[in-house]
Amino acid sequence: MGIVLSVLTIIGKVLLVLLGILLALILLLLLVPFRYEIAGESTSGETHGEARVTWLLHFLSLSILFSKKKGEEKSVAKVFRVCGISLRELRQKKAEHKKAKRRKEKKKKLEKLRDRDPEEFEKLRREAKLRKEERAAERLRLEAEEKAREEEEKRALAEARSRKEKLVIHTRRQLRLFERLLRALVSLIHRAFWTAIDGIRFLSFLPLRITQAIGKIVSKIAGVCDTIAKWKYFIDDPRVRHALSLLWKRGRKILKAVRPRRVEGRVHFGFEDPSVTGELLALLSAFYPLYGGRIVLEPDFSGYVLEGTVFLSGRVCLGQVGWQVLMLLLSSDVRYTYRYVKELRGSKEADLSEENEIDMKEAS
Description:
By secondary structure, this protein is α+β, with helices and mostly antiparallel strands. Among the domains are: about 50 residues, N-terminal domain of TfIIb (Single Sheet), CATH 2.20.25; about 130 residues, no CATH class. Helices cover about 70% and strands about 20% of the residues. A hairpin with a 5-residue loop joins strand 3 and strand 4.
């Protein structure tokens, strides 16, 4: 009995230690902020960018490198590091270490064999060298045969294609005139027939179409009025207003928590038309309080150009953002507003589906 209790005590202590480690990791994730940096540079024909996210004094880091040159495909590289050590480099070093270890063991075996039996060692070395030469000769022979076979297939395919093209051209020349005449005759008969049918159908259904058009206009007006009344009631609802104010308040705090703390850059831009460049510069000047002193704008009125550099950095605390989101989810007014909007969208989709069904029935 005492042994069972001691085993259970040890298991309980281990579980408590694991629970404590898990709780500490969760607290670290929530309280220690993630820091991010984004840098980009664009010149004539080349674009380079880098995004980096670090956590816990660079204990974990993820870098994404982007590069694109004119006339080439874009390249994206991802590097994940733990304590500054790249996992990809670590795997490569491990593979190289295993390869070097196998080579060293093979070399030791050969040295032992040379010391023990020199004749057998020389024999094995000659056989290995001979096998290597045979493999190289066989590889060259196979490559030559593959190349000759590909050339022969290309030549036969080109000859067959040439014969086929000549035959097709000759046949087309004979059938082209007859085909044109036949198409013109069939098209003329088809147009005349369906024009008569459409005229008869239009005249027969004209009164019904007028009545249906008037009914649709009346129903759409009634639907618009009903929608306006629903949204007016929605906006005037005090719970909805409180939910919107709460969304605005919490949303501002979330944006404040994730916004960049440092922004620097230079943008050199211009268009073919100098007036367009001036209009864009005037538009950007209205937002000068947001970027003034941090981003330098260099307009160019001589031609089209778009280049520059940008750098921004900041931090995100998951605990702070998660708390704001949790407060929104726990608010009964926010949930009420979400359900109300969902019902409005559902009723609108149902009305649209009914109209589509009516249109399909009328068309049939």
